[in-house]
Design a protein that fits this description.
about 350 residues, alpha/beta, four-stranded antiparallel beta sheet, 11 helices, binds adenosine-5'-diphosphate, binds iron/sulfur cluster, binds magnesium ion
Length: about 350
């Protein structure tokens, strides 16, 4: 793994920092090497007590990024470059021996995933799952642990009876609440949530989001919250990162990203959101996201971008701070490149629709 030098993590304000992180799926098919560049150079940080959202279309690399920061790397996925630093380990995650890495899971770093059945064992009662995941991290006797679990459920307004239930005896919404209880029992510094409400109906989703928000603020945890659903981001996240084809293309305070999207892709996502009473047809983007096994050169959005210029085909725009707490990777949005007469946007009228 390439080590990248830089200043150490500012542990007073950052809980997680990734630097130039690259995670690729590397496979061999009939003797031919194939590489899917699912996370391709992501540098970002998550601050104390904040919920940082990650949005982007399906297959843009959101879950792979989550796997990379959670040290949940299994072949064919490899970390090929970059750093993942947490303030509670005071070291690069991948510099730790694997035993130490697994010791931080659940105690310092926990997950809420989309399918609760990925976590809850269908043939074990819920209290057994609590024991399996958390008992060894809590450093207390068994009866004290059971009391602590009950106190925690009470705090989260969950009935203690669920501990005797099997997962299939609970509704989908209740199972997801149990997963939130499980993820927060050890009061971890960092919680990773990957599409945690995607499988739930809208009313249950609202309650579960409220529970996540309350729990996060009560325990002061920081969180990365991944969902393709921008309406959920508007509801729960403090800052928002937009991914496209393995890269972060825009990042800012959620309210700023919604009110002033600077990247054409973000602008398109936000313009596509349904609005009550608005019957105007939405402009669709042409084309589809690129294959990450053979992504286009330069800006990966250029084959679909209404503002694409010549430079966009050859150079990758850096994620650049263009306003306070607002970073964007786009030549058209950035003042660093002024289009020459040969580099005028191909479809200038599109400026009106995406800005
Ligand atoms: N186990 C795997 N082997 C090979 N490619 C994979 C694997 N898992 C995911 N990918 C590929 O990595 C890319 C990113 O996927 P993923 O991180 O799951 O995206 P998202 O969570 O945004 O939908 C996709 O092109 C996907 O096909
Ligand atoms: S203008 Fe160029 S750099 Fe900006 S999103 Fe479009 S193709 Fe990418
Ligand atoms: Mg995913």
């Amino acid at each position: 793994m390439t080590q990248i030098s830089g200043s150490p993590l500012d542990e007073n304000s950052y809980v997680l920092e990734t630097r130039a992180l690259r995670a690729y799926y590397r496979m061999k098919y009939f003797g031919i090497d194939r590489e899917v560049r699912a996370v391709d150079g992501i540098s970002m940080h998550v601050r104390k007590n904040e919920i940082y959202g990650i949005a982007g279309e399906s297959s843009c690399g959101k879950t792979t990024f989550i796997k990379a920061i959670a040290a949940a790397i299994r072949p064919p996925l490899e970390i090929v470059a970059g750093h993942v630093n947490y303030n509670f380990i005071n070291n690069d995650l991948y510099a730790l021996p694997s035993k130490e890495r697994s010791a931080i899971r659940w105690r310092h770093l926990s997950y809420i995933l989309q399918g609760s059945m990925n976590v809850l064992n269908p043939v074990r009662r819920i209290h057994k799952t609590f024991e399996d995941f958390a008992f060894r991290h809590m450093h207390m006797g068994r009866s004290e642990f059971e009391q602590e679990v009950k106190r925690h459920l009470e705090r989260l307004r969950l009935p203690a009876e669920i501990l005797r239930a099997y997962p299939h005896e609970l509704s989908g919404g209740m199972r997801q609440r149990v997963c939130i209880a499980l993820a927060t029992l050890c009061k971890p510094e960092f919680i990773i949530a990957d599409e945690p409400t995607t499988a739930l109906d809208v009313v249950v989703q609202k309650d579960v989001l409220a529970m996540i928000r309350e729990t996060q603020s009560e325990f002061g945890s920081s969180m990365i919250f991944v969902t393709h659903d921008l309406a959920v981001h508007a509801n729960i996240t403090d800052r928002l990162g937009i991914m496209y084809a393995g890269r972060l293309v825009e990042e800012g305070r959620t309210a700023d990203v919604f009110s002033n999207p600077m990247h054409p892709y973000t602008a398109h996502l936000i313009a596509s959101l349904p609005r009550i009473g608005d019957i105007h047809p939405r402009n669709a983007l042409t084309g589809s996201p690129p294959s990450l096994a053979d992504p286009p050169k330069g800006c990966r959005f250029h084959p679909r971008c209404p503002l694409a210029m010549e430079i966009c085909r050859h150079e990758n725009p850096a994620l650049t701070t263009l306003a306070e707490d607002h970073r964007v990777a786009c030549f058209a949005a950035s003042a660093t490149v002024q289009p020459t007469s040969d580099e005028k946007p191909q479809h200038p009228e599109a400026l009106e629709t995406v800005r």
